């Protein structure tokens, strides 16, 4: 019999088992308000140089879902899609039990923290948010697409100076996700620095 896993091993096992779960595999319920606050607390534990908080999570709930669907449909038409394509895009706004818009607030003139460090903090926050969702038993996937650059959509979600990164689809996973294995990834991502160039 295997020795029981220590709590820290269980946490690591759960961490290594996080895969994105796409909207078509997400069912009700989505996370509660208390769980969402925990997920944002986890996001706030990401490294953030200068504690600039260069991100915001905006919940799309209630009547706002229909408004987002209308914006998605209009963006699809503006991009030259027919009515069937527009309906499909509108459906993307309505399908997940909960959608969370992710916004970046990058201070391009910050005297100590360059933009790339602020973007790193945004990515860290996103990863922590998704991992916390997974640890709470939910599935989710970060999605963007050309619509994040649609002027009407960007204006609807962003305050001045903000960038719309995309939307996290969240819900209960209808099936166990097992995503890409990335088995070779560690050998690519982990290297010794040889002391020379590059
Ligand atoms: C900012 C951002 C935007 C993304 N946009 C999309 C997208 O529009 N469509 C998509 O299929 N995956 C998108 N992805 C990738 C998925 O969220 C996911 O990371 C990828 O499918 C790998 O799956 P995994 O998280 O299980 O490793 C995006 C990821 C990030 C960080």
Structure notes:
By secondary structure, this protein is an alpha+beta fold. The protein is 41% helix and 17% strand. The protein has helices at 7-16, 33-43, 63-78, 83-94, 115-135, 151-157, 185-189; strands at residues 26-27, 55-60, 98-105, 139-143, 162-173. Strands 1, 2, 3, 4 and 5 form a five-stranded antiparallel beta sheet that branches. Helix 2 packs antiparallel against helix 5 (115-135). It is globular and about 55 Å long. The termini are far apart. The structure holds flavin mononucleotide. Flavin mononucleotide (FMN) binds at residues 19-20, 141-145, 165-166, 179-180.
Offer a few descriptive terms.
198 residues, 5 strands, 41% helix, binds flavin mononucleotide
- Which outline best applies? globular
Mean pLDDT: 94
SSE string, helix = H, strand = E? HEHEHHEHEHEH
What count of helical segments does DSSP give?
A: 7
- The value of Rg in angstroms is 19 Å
**Which ions, cofactors or small ligands are bound in this entry?**
flavin mononucleotide
Biggest sheet details: 5 strands, antiparallel
The secondary structure category is: alpha+beta
Strand content: 15-25%
Cα(first) to Cα(last) distance is 47 Å
Helix share of residues?
A: 40-55%
Topology:
Blueprint: H1 7-16, E1 26-27, H2 33-43, E2 55-60, H3 63-78, H4 83-94, E3 98-105, H5 115-135, E4 139-143, H6 151-157, E5 162-173, H7 185-189
Antiparallel strand pairs: 1-5, 2-3, 3-5, 4-5
Helix pairs in contact: 2-5, 3-4
Quick rundown:
Helix content is 41%, strand content 17%. The chain has 198 residues and is an alpha+beta fold.
